[in-house]
Design brief:
The complex is a heterodimer of chains A (about 650) and B (about 270). Chain A is α+β, with helices and mostly antiparallel strands. Chain A folds into three domains: about 180 residues, D-Maltodextrin-Binding Protein, domain 2 (3-Layer(aba) Sandwich), CATH 3.40.190.10; about 190 residues, D-Maltodextrin-Binding Protein, domain 2 (3-Layer(aba) Sandwich), CATH 3.40.190; about 230 residues, MetI-like (MetI-like fold), CATH 1.10.3720. Chain A has 29 helices and twelve strands. In chain A, the strands form four sheets. Chain A has a four-stranded antiparallel beta sheet. A four-stranded mixed beta sheet of chain A has the order 8-9-7-10. In chain A, helix 8 packs across helix 16, helix 19 runs antiparallel to helix 25 and helix 20 crosses helix 23. By secondary structure, chain B is mainly α. Chain B has two domains: about 50 residues, no CATH class; about 210 residues, MetI-like (MetI-like fold, Orthogonal Bundle). Chain B is built from 13 helices and no strands. In chain B, helix 3 crosses helix 13. The chains are: A alpha+beta (about 650), B mainly alpha (about 270).
Chain lengths: ~650, ~270
């Protein structure tokens, strides 16, 4: 008996330690978006045909670039890195700074770099070394309806005139852009900022945002929404949403990337679309945000030679043409903009080339992710009207300054300046203070009810157990779907019941998102309170109940004089447990709202998690965690003291 | 009249607790086109298994299931094994002392995983277990051990001490007593503990997200959460709902079958906790 058990345990351990089969071939792994059109499969196949000993494994990751970046970062931190790093422009500085990338000069000496667009090469450099070979280029463009407006606007003023004259909301708006709180919002915002003559950093690398130019840019963005030139829902839009909106003919203009051209050309709008540089202030220069993707090699990878070969292949005219024809990706090689085949398909590439060679990169900084997070937060607050342009520009300046110099300072000093910390702590406190009491009272009522003796109460018990037993993260997806606009059932029920006149955008407004998170959390964790309180109710002796009621005490009196005091120890357990878990909430919010919009649902755990795993600042994150734990312990003591009855205290 | 009130309330509570789950199933069974149809139809006009099929054939959902099973199953086995040894040892101690030890252990186990994730990740990186099943199993065992010890100790205590003594007189070794007598007699407690530990591991999210970063190692909750925005044209809500349904139906069946035991086990666990 024992022998067999030991054998089983040993066997299962062995099974756990060697789960992976061993490959004999060189396999290079990379992560990218879902491979629509099969372009990457084609590239991998052709490469494999020429290098039979190397196989490319393309792992389709999440569509969100932030999440793909997280995948790469976690793979570098774990020591099992993906060999090929397919990266966005803005990742380069950080990955290079951390030493995760191999310099590429062996494969791309300076004279070879010249054949690519200047901006793309610049964006691949960090501290003089070259880390990222450009695969595809990108820049923000203004698309306009040639059939509806006579000429594209050049300046903000012309834009206003065109919107006033030709747009007719809500049937047809002036413009759609990307207004959700994510990287794309920064790309949009920078085009206004640059177009107004401003910049994030000045020539000396100092933050330069509490300026007239910045306030003008923010005011103008706000005006676009206030005057209904753009639909209000634009604050939930990413690229795809804007495209769909524009494709349906509901807007005159759209700010988007070049890949959209191919999609529009296959739609009924074919031939009615023009492109132009983005609008700017009178007397200033237009500017586009440089985007684009490149390939790097992980330093921790085991086959740098093979990886180098693939990087060369992926940046070759052949591969770039595959990407162009299958996905509409803009090439990064100058020569391809004069390529006959490409020009036949996309005659506008001549104009595009001009725009691309003037595109500006976002601030190159290893901490770009946090710079961007700060900008996103404030621009988003403008659009959802939580801040005025003046407040936002002040906030940007302050946060960025403390970010840029605060890195080297000690933690305590940084703590005092950490705006994100205050904001997330406020959110956490609000969340805990609303959710725990609601769960408690709802749970108490449900427990009292289910405790009543009636037939079928087992059914009630089962129903109550179910939310507790289901995975929070999974059910958060379900809630996201139910709060969806317009396909969510919650809007549908409320509208049909006459409580709402039009469907609400729950997850894209600050209040709505917080409400949704609270609602889902209360649904999920009330059962926990019920279970604990049921245990308490079962411990109340029936004889005492009966003798009290013989004495003529009504149900209310019985509850307050007997049941409630008997329940106190259980209430204590339930409250402390719930409080600690509500304050530490992560999975529900991470899945449901990712902390947005405008950081309005971001809690401490999300902030600390991002610090540790996105910004690689484990030291500061651990410091915050220990403070957080200390605060929770203090709170638990307070609850225990407040809920300990006098006779219990004497007893100890 | 009073009875009617009670049943109305019962219905309200049941609907409140079940409607997200029901809506998920209804959505999952609709054909893809109907998921995005306005106005919303509550009951599917046509029932289709297309979403369920896609989850398995277009996406590595089977792999996620396997990962979840290996991790949760492994952690449950480990936990039971360690907890029964500890509880058996505690049984020989004075009752007051053993309870004191357990109470301390339970206090430590109250911390939410979100606070532990950074230290756990650092520790697992040090020992090279990131992206490895064991890297997730070990923390799960540590998190569940106090609770499991508590449950098993409560069960072991109910067995008469004489049984032990009789077995000792017959020349049984300690391990033989544990495996041959104590454990078989505590089967119900073992089962409840196993189910509760399993559900915890099955549902856990943040550690699984962090410690097993590569896609082929996602557990089911992580895999489903990563589906968000996975497609260009539209978030595949039909498939997401199908995946949610596949994950939750087994849990609900388990609950339905074991409801009374679980409730008892939970309330017992809560009595002194």
């Amino acid at each position: 008996m024992i022998k067999r058990l030991e054998f089983l345990i040993l066997f299962s351990i062995l099974f756990l330690i060697f789960p992976l089969p061993v490959f004999s071939q060189v396999v290079l792994r990379m992560v990218g978006p879902e491979d629509l059109g099969g372009a990457w499969a084609e590239i991998a196949r052709r490469f494999h045909g020429r290098n039979p000993d190397i196989e490319i494994q393309y792992i389709p990751g999440p569509w969100s670039t932030d999440q793909r970046q997280d995948m790469y970062i976690r793979s570098f931190m774990s020591g099992d890195a993906f060999d090929l790093v397919f990266m966005d422009v803005i990742w380069t500085a950080k990955f290079a700074e951390k030493g995760w990338l191999l310099p590429l000069e062996d494969w791309f000496p300076p004279e070879k770099q010249e054949i690519f667009l200047q901006g793309d090469i610049e964006a691949g450099r960090y501290h003089g070394r070259f880390y990222r070979a450009p695969v595809r280029s990108d820049a923000g463009l203004l698309y306009y309806r040639k059939d509806l407006i006579p000429h594209p606007p050049k300046t903000w003023q012309e834009f206003e005139e065109i919107c006033r004259k030709y747009s007719s909301p809500p049937e047809q708006y002036g413009i759609v852009f990307q207004g959700m709180q994510y990287e794309g919002l920064v790309c949009n915002y920078l085009e206004y900022l640059w177009g107004a003559g401003g910049s994030v950093l000045d020539d000396q690398g100092k933050v330069h945002l509490e300026t007239h130019e910045n306030i003008m840019a923010l005011k103008f963005m706000k005006k676009i929404l206030d005057e209904d030139w753009a639909p209000k829902s634009v604050i939930t839009f990413q690229e795809q949403h804007s495209l769909e909106f524009f494709e349906k003919g509901k807007a005159l203009m759209m700010r988007n990337w070049p890949y959209v051209w191919k999609v529009l050309n296959d739609s009924p709008l074919r031939g009615k679309i023009g492109i132009a540089p983005f609008i700017h202030r009178q007397g200033k220069e237009p500017a586009s945000t440089l985007g684009g993707w490149g390939m790097g090699i992980a330093r921790a990878g085991k086959h740098p030679e093979a990886a180098g070969k693939f990087v060369e292949f992926v940046t070759s005219p052949e591969a770039q043409k595959i990407l162009y024809f299958k996905t509409g990706a803009v090439p990064s090689r100058k020569s391809l903009f004069r390529d006959e085949e490409i020009l036949k398909e996309s005659p506008y590439y001549r104009e595009l080339y001009e725009i691309l060679s003037r595109a500006r990169p976002r601030p190159v900084h290893p901490d770009y992710a946090r710079i961007s997070a700060i900008l996103q937060k404030h621009v988003s607050s403008i659009l959802v009207e939580r801040e005025s342009p003046r407040e936002a520009s002040h906030g940007m300046q302050r946060s960025l300054e403390s970010l840029l110099k605060g890195r080297k300072e000690n933690w305590l000093k940084r703590l005092a300046l950490d705006d994100d910390l205050f904001q997330t702590a406020r959110n956490t406190a609000f969340f805990t203070l609303i959710s725990v009491p609601s769960e408690f009272f709802l749970g108490l009522l449900m427990a009292l009810f289910i405790h009543l003796p009636f037939r079928g109460r087992n059914l009630g018990r089962l129903a109550v157990l179910i939310p507790w037993a289901l995975p929070t993260a999974v059910m958060a997806m379900s809630w996201q779907w139910m709060f969806n606009n317009p396909f969510g059932i919650i809007n549908d029920v409320l509208v049909r019941a006459g409580l709402l006149s039009i469907p609400a955008d729950w997850l894209s407004t600050a209040g709505g998102a917080m409400f949704a998170a609270l609602f889902a959390d209360i649904w999920k964790t009330t059962p926990f309170v019920v279970i604990i309180l049921l245990a308490g109710l079962q411990s109340v002796p029936k004889e005492l109940q009966e003798s009290l009621s013989l004495d003529g005490a009504g149900p209310l009196k019985r509850f307050f004089q007997l049941t409630l005091p008997m329940l106190i120890p259980y209430i204590r357990v339930a409250l402390i447990f719930r409080m600690i878990h509500a304050a530490g909430i992560f999975d529900l919010i991470w899945v449901l709202t990712k902390g947005g919009p405008a950081d309005s649902t971001r809690t401490l755990s999300l902030y600390i998690y991002d610090l540790a795993f996105q910004n690689d600042e484990i030291g500061y994150a651990l410091f915050l965690t220990s403070l957080f734990i200390a605060a929770l312990i203090l709170m638990s003591f307070a609850v225990t003291r407040g809920l300990t009855l006098r006779y219990e205290r004497v007893g100890r | 009249m009073k009875k009617a009130m009670i049943y109305i309330l019962l219905a309200v509570i049941s609907v409140y607790c079940l409607f997200p789950f029901l809506w998920t199933i209804l959505t999952a069974l609709k054909p893809q086109e109907d998921v995005f149809k306005l106005p919303i139809r509550y009951l599917p006009e046509r029932v289709s298994a297309q979403n369920l099929e896609n989850v398995f054939f277009k996406r590595p959902f089977a792999r996620y299931l396997l990962n979840s099973l290996v991790v949760s199953g492994g952690a449950t086995l480990f936990t039971l094994w360690a907890a029964s040894l500890i509880a058996f040892r505690l049984r020989k101690m004075e009752i007051e002392r053993s309870l004191k030890i357990q109470r301390r252990l339970l206090i430590m186990a109250i911390a939410p995983p979100a606070l532990l994730v950074i230290p756990v990740f650092m520790a697992m990186r040090k020992v090279g277990l990131v992206d490895h099943y064991l890297g997730l199993i070990l923390p799960y065992v540590a998190l569940n051990l106090p609770f499991a010890v508590w449950m098993l100790h409560a069960a072991f205590r109910q067995l008469p001490k004489e049984l032990n003594e009789a077995a000792m007189l017959d020349g049984f070794s300690s391990s033989r007593i544990l495996l041959g007598i104590v454990l078989p007699l505590s089967r119900p407690a073992l089962a409840i503990t196993a189910v509760l530990v399993f559900i915890f591991c099955w549902n856990e999210f943040i550690l699984a997200l962090t410690v097993m970063p590569s896609q082929m190692k996602y557990t089911v909750p992580v895999g489903i959460a990563m589906l968000s925005g996975a497609s260009v044209y539209e978030i595949p809500w039909g498939e997401i709902n199908a995946a949610v349904m596949l994950t939750t139906v087994p849990v609900i069946l388990l609950m339905a079958f074991l409801q009374r035991w679980i409730m008892e086990g939970l309330t017992r666990g809560a009595v002194k906790g």
